[in-house]
Amino acid sequence: MSIFVPMKRYHLVLLFLIAMLAACHPTSRDARQTAHDALENARIQLDSGNNAEALQLFKEAERYGLMADDTLTVAHARFNIARCLGYYADKEAVVSLLKSAAEGFGEDYADRADALRELGDFYQFHRAYDTAEMYMNQALAYAEQSGSVETKSNVFSAFYAMYFNAGKHEKSAEYLRQFMQVRLPNMMDDKLWMFYYSGMGNIFYEMGNSDSTAYYYGKLEELVNQAESDKDIWFYFYTLAHQAKSRGDFEKAFDYYCRYDIGNNHSKIEEKRNNLIAMSQKYDKAVMQNELNEKIIRKQRVIILISGIAALVLLAFLISQIRLARNRKREAEINAELFHFKQHSQALAQRDAEHEQIQKDYADRLSEALDKEQQTMMLLDIYLNNSKKANLLNDLERSVFGDKDHWKAMLAVVEEKYPSLWETLGQKCPDLDEDEKKSFILSHFKVSRQEEADYLGTTVNMVDKLRGRVRKKMAERQ
Fold it and tell me: Which H helix or E strand runs over 333?
């Protein structure tokens, strides 16, 4: 009874520790909120150009998303981690992240299409155009399922860029036209036409079609000059400057180069201003996130402490159970040895009793034999010292042979040494009568004629006749 009391106490301690661990463990809600905050702050950092900080925050979003079992947040985090790593990162790592993100988006077909499109862009950057085309086609299928015009147009734009870089200019132009067909019914914008004219001009320039190149670059120039501001179109000035230079119009080329430089500088200034705004927004959100992170960190420290205590208690419990098991095993071995010893003792006692009984039987039989021998010796002594030999001889025979006569006693001795001799002799020599068979057997023991006559209860002359007949019959058989 004393063995089981400590076990119950250990159980209570373990249940208490488990309850404490459950109470201190971060809730799924806390982890999910932390993951969302990290994801949002990371996007702000990414838009601000702070890729290193954005990458760290995206990894935090992935970690807390896994903790909260938030598949969608984990997929967004991995997609953006791949974007932060860029085209020059480890190929296997980027491909694994984008594939995992595409799978994690599940039925969110628009995001799934974006992940596959990004995967296609990554392969086409590394000039694996066949693989890139395969993933682009998958992205297009999911984009059509999503019904998102923006997602579909982004895939067509990616196809346009991929085929342009692969040198397949006709296909590149085809997908650029499809891009315009998707976007135009929903948004009539001069910037969209600028993108189209610039792209078509670049395609025909690479194909060596100067007329078509001049046409599309001319359309681009018209729209650029009609624009109210150079703020969002300054990067087209570089293309126009290059085109003017190729025509020999150096004055216009110089003007476009200047406008390109001005726009580029304004863009950098605007980017810095946006970075300051983003940093301010980031600070506000970072404060909330840090508070939640600190709360989780405190809980994790408590978890580590309680886990250490629980591990020690559990180790002590296991050691006690091991010792108890060893004691019980030793006790069982001792009981088994004691049981076998008792059985062995009982077997020895039984064997001793059997030996005593056998010795007693031998003693009784020896005593009887000695008594019988003593009586025989007494009779023999009387026989030797008495004239009535005939009667005493009969008494002696009965004492030695019982009710048997001499021949029967002799045959019994012979049968012990040669079993079934009498029956075998009768089968092999059927022409011998009973007296002749007796004479044949006695002749092998080299007894005298008188002794044989005494055994057979006849005269010496009759013995001679029997021996003669036996020799004759045996000679005839040969």
Answer: helix 250-384
Residue 318 has pLDDT above 90, yes or no: no
Task: State yes or no: pLDDT of 134 exceeds 90.
Answer: yes
pTM: 0.52
Residue 34 CA to residue 61 CA, distance in Å, equals 7
Domain count for the chain: 2
Instruction: Supply 367's token pair.
Output: 């005593």
* Residue matched to tokens 């025509």: 247
Distance CA(233)–CA(192), nearest Å, equals: 11
Domain stop point among 287, 309, 331: 309
Both structure tokens of 401 = 């042979």
Task: Average the pLDDT over 141-167 and give the result.
Answer: 91
State the pLDDT at residue 171.
Answer: 92
In a domain, 229, yes or no: no
Range of the domain at 137: 4-191+269-309
In a domain, 199, yes or no: no
The conformation of residue 26, written as its DSSP 8-state character, comes to P
> Any residues with CB less than 8 A from the CB of 156 and at least 6 apart, and which?
140, 175, 176, 178, 179, 182
